[in-house]
Amino acid sequence: MEELTKDPRFALTLIVIDFEGLTPAGRPAEPIEVAALALGPDGGRLLEEGRFESLMRPPADVPVTTMDTAQTGLTAAALATVPPAAEVMARLDAHLTRPPYRLVAHHASTEAGLIARQTAHCPVLASTPLLDTIRLAKAILPGLGSYRLDNLLSHYGIPKPPDRHRAMPDVQVTAQLLTLLLAGGCATGRWRPAARSRTPTSPTWKSAAGCPSSGQSNVREVGDISARVGYSEENDDLKGDHPWRSPLAHPVLFASASSSRCRKA
Known about the structure:
This protein is α/β, with parallel strands linked by helices. The chain is about 25% helix and about 15% strand. The longest helix is centred in the last third of the chain and has 21 residues, at about 165-185. The relative contact order is 0.22.
């Protein structure tokens, strides 16, 4: 990853994000939990620079079904007294004060739709480009068959968390998956590094407890990337105008703000 940090397109913060939601009939999904993990390159690794997680109270007319509880473990009683989505998303957005950022999600269109419907409360988040790890996995692992998160975890030998389908555990394994996919793309020569170098800046993030997470005690190693990431035109099999195409599929690999953005699914 030391070589990767010299690529000016990597001078940003990756924010791995996941929502858990309710899916009422005849209307869009309603978020009930969000988690985000901010990652930055440092000394050959992606290090955690901050995290955010919160439950969200659904609208009163959206029930928490037995199926919802079976998947997440969250009950109507547990969600009845937590803040609504508007408040939580505004708090998350308030952390995003040091761009550029790139959002990372597995099946990013789901996250994008949820974010888009909260745009009034999280304008920075809603205008941040997305990286979809499904698109990235399809480029790195063609012919795998299934690109569901559980299948990719099994492929790479990443342990499935016992509380799978809760936002933070899903974010943590997605972060591990991201580092392995990036390393795989580097090892197979799918991208080449840019010639110039630039030192990335760190965002001002707070931990879940509200304390600044710039101290060494708050830094957690997430993964190791041993090769360089760039763009190789001859290896680009993700060309086209698909709204959720991976930002790694075109020359604005780590560009800030002008490529694919969150939009309503």
